[in-house]
Specification:
Strand content: 15-25%
Number of strands: 9
Shape: globular
CATH superfamily of the largest domain: P-loop containing nucleotide triphosphate hydrolases
CATH topology of the largest domain: Rossmann fold
Number of helices: 8
CATH class of the largest domain: Alpha Beta
Number of domains: 2
Helix content: 25-40%
Oligomer: single chain
Order of helices and strands: EEEHEEHHHEHEHEEHH
Strand order of the largest sheet: 5-6-7-3-8-9
Radius of gyration: 19 Å
Length: about 260
Amino acid sequence: MNNESEPSPLQPSTAPACGACCTRIVDLGVKIGPTTILEHVHLHMHCGQLTTLIGPNGAGKTTLLRAMMGELPHTGELRFIPMHKGSREKRPRIGYVPQKLDMDALSPITVRDLFAGATVRRPVWLGVSRQASQIADSQLALVGADGLQNKKLGQLSCGQLQRVMLALALTPTPEILLLDEPVSGMDQAGILLFYQVVSRLRRDYDLSVLLISHDLGAAARFADRMVFLNRTILHDGTPSEVLSQPLVRQTFGLNYGEGAAS
């Protein structure tokens, strides 16, 4: 989700992904009590680039996303470096899609209500404003979720709900989009559709995307870059380069070439 009060619809980039701007993580570390969860994490993610984060369970992948969002105290730095010379570095504006949304399946809340409550400082019981409704319509259309506005949340499939959450995360336009296992629980058709939507958005709107995934085949097919994390970054490169590493193959039980894009 993205928590600014007066969002505007996502605007297309006027040029191909330039890679001139980037989100930079420098020497990030996280400790919880005496336990070190992450240490010496260095990562540069360029605009228009889809980076998949992989690693064993307990490697610190979700912890990294939570630290980037400011939910966990950490050492090190997180900065957004703008494309234009002379612009000041800053903390990036972040959009986030969680693995799942905990909710009451019998809730009367509709997709339009959810969107209005998350994007406008106005109680939903007062009604959804025309502006909020128009923003919801345009953003939902971007992710192939148009037609779902009046559906109750409990009526949505896993894939539909995640695309609704993706539309919310894009309002207002983030500088980096964080996705925490967003295809968990989806069927193969839903997984393919979600990756296609995300891949198109990062290309058309010049977004940096960092996506946690255990689906190595789909990740390798759509990602520009893959990062293997286990407390720190151990491998970083193209999907084929990372998936060919002995440690990665051993971790996921892969034979050589298995899990790479076909």
